[in-house]
Write the structure tokens for this entry.
Amino acid sequence: MNHCQKLLLGILFTLGLIVAAQAQDRQADYRLGAGDAIKISVFQNPDLTVETRVADSGIITYPLIGAVQLGGNTIPEAERAIADKLREGGFVQKPQVNILLIQVRGNQVSVLGLVSRPGRYPIETGNTRLSDMLATAGGAVPSGSDVVILSGIREGKPFRREIDVPALFGPERNNEDVLVAGGDVIYVHRAPVFYIYGEVQRPGPYRVERDMTVLQALVQGGGLTVRGTERSMRIHRRGADGRVAEIAPEKSDLVRADDVIQVQESLF
């Protein structure tokens, strides 16, 4: 083996150690949940090597010590729990317990609605946030709303919050990028739209952009035809009572979701 080959093998080995360390760090933060598959081993005690799943109750059954509550624990906490019972029972004097997470099933978050890859995704670390799960699902599609709905259970009570995603990354970042928990559901609804018709180049439905004005909506529709006039524009808007009102807007007025903008023909 020449010098270059030895150098390449050394680099690959170092990279492998780095990746393994990163994976171990991620697992150290993860909290075990129902359905997770784990492999438990004790140094110099091969007969205590067991592959098992965490039950719905969070309990596993382990040789010599019986039932152990591991659900909700991090992996280092679970290792200490088993080691303590082995030592207290007099089975192993100085147990060195290692737990390997084989398959994640317990702590999963459902990402639904208008995202690139809807589905259920595992929480890989204990500090996984809303933005992390949206990124895992590929983010919202162009027709998806900027506001997402996060629902789940917190402290035994139903939890629901609407979160403005672009605001998470604005100049004044807020604290809305919350931690997610197992069983949470993230839902991305369809973005609000307005409708424009009449004497415009491209009539149809369009997304309501943030702080969009009537003039910007008119531009979105391709502008006026040769027969159109801004003076005769009307907005048909449904109020809280369900009734539709006809409004003569200013060009600087803001467009609302489900507004119907009509551009009439000029009389002159």
Summary: Confidence is low (pLDDT under 50) at residues 15-23. The two ends are 90 Å apart (CA to CA). Helices lie at 3-29, 75-88, 130-136, 214-220.
